[in-house]
Design goal:
The protein has about 260 residues and is α+β, with helices and mostly antiparallel strands. The protein has two domains: about 140 residues, Fructose-1,6-Bisphosphatase, Chain A, domain 1 (2-Layer Sandwich); about 110 residues, D-Maltodextrin-Binding Protein, domain 2 (3-Layer(aba) Sandwich), CATH 3.40.190.80. Helices cover about 30% and strands about 25% of the residues. It has eight helices and 15 strands. The strands form three sheets. It has an eight-stranded mixed β-sheet with strand order 4-3-5-6-7-8-9-10, with helices on both faces. Strands 12-11-13-15-14 form a five-stranded mixed β-sheet. Strand 11, helix 4 and strand 12 form a beta-alpha-beta unit. The chain is globular, with a radius of gyration of 17 Å. The two termini are about 30 Å apart.
């Protein structure tokens, strides 16, 4: 497993989040262009502007590092250190004027996430996670909450439409085990910040790409939680895109059993 990222990496990541937020805020609930990509997902002018300013700074400060970005692809493929950028995770929420999207910034060392930021630039909420360090929410420690029984859980996912039929069945099997009316839809990366801060207990998703989940791992785990795929394995650059986030790691076997 990779070692903890150093203070220079953290300082750069914080500057990246600041730059992305400055690019996004003027366009929120304002005027911007949008189009559909080949995978039928939407991209806006704000997505591209935010990623462009982040890439420019990384290239200037750490030119040998790799960059994996949602909008502009990969640079220095094969580098041991790779910055993974999702300028707006939750573009649909941005388009709809809902401030529950986020900018995701991760640093991978040999394929393992060692630093992650979830930044909500409108509400100015920021979660920062580093391997071996406690997660901070706006500068103060974030802590997940214990969960004795799935029946008491708050369960989240972004959209049931993101699941295949088989995946939807697995999610609904867990949903039937949790407290009635404690299932939240929508939120993308924001839900994982809420796991780190002890408000949501479980998030289950599938079909995620590396830029969707890399930053989430240090944030959730640094707050005392756990991130895994649907087989219970740790997440890295080679994971299959299925994700379980748990505020209380002791409930992993319960969730896996409920999923069937």
């Amino acid at each position: 497993m990779a070692s903890s990222s150093n203070d220079n990496d953290l300082a750069l990541a914080l500057r990246l989040a600041d730059l992305a937020g400055a690019a996004i805020r003027p366009m929120f609930r304002g005027q911007w262009s949008e189009e559909r990509k080949a995978d039928r997902s939407y991209v806006t002018e704000a997505d591209r502007a935010a990623e462009a300013v982040m890439r420019k700074l990384i290239e200037a400060e750490f030119p040998r590092d790799g960059i994996i970005g949602e909008e502009y692809g990969t640079r220095n493929e094969g580098a041991g250190r790779q910055w993974v950028l999702d300028p707006i995770d939750g573009t649909t929420s941005f388009i709809a004027g809902r401030p529950i999207f986020g900018t995701l910034i991760a640093l991978l060392q040999d394929g393992w996430p060692v630093l992650g930021i979830i930044d909500q630039p409108i509400s100015r909420e920021r979660w920062v996670g580093r391997i071996g360090q406690p997660t901070l929410f706006n500068g103060k420690p974030a802590v997940t909450r214990p969960l004795k029984d799935l029946a008491e859980a708050v369960l989240g996912t972004t959209s049931p439409h993101a699941f295949t039929n088989e995946e939807a069945d697995a999610f609904m099997s867990v949903a039937k085990s949790v407290a009635e009316r404690k299932i939240v839809y929508g939120g993308d990366c924001y839900n994982y910040g809420l796991v780190a801060s002890g408000h949501i207990d479980i998030v289950i998703e599938a079909g995620l790409k590396l830029h969707d989940y890399a930053a989430l791992v240090p944030v959730v785990e640094g707050a005392g939680g756990m991130m895994a795929d649907w087989q219970g394995n740790p997440l890295d650059a080679g994971s299959d895109g299925t994700v379980i986030a748990l505020g209380d790691p002791a409930r992993l076997e319960d969730v896996l059993e409920a999923m069937g």
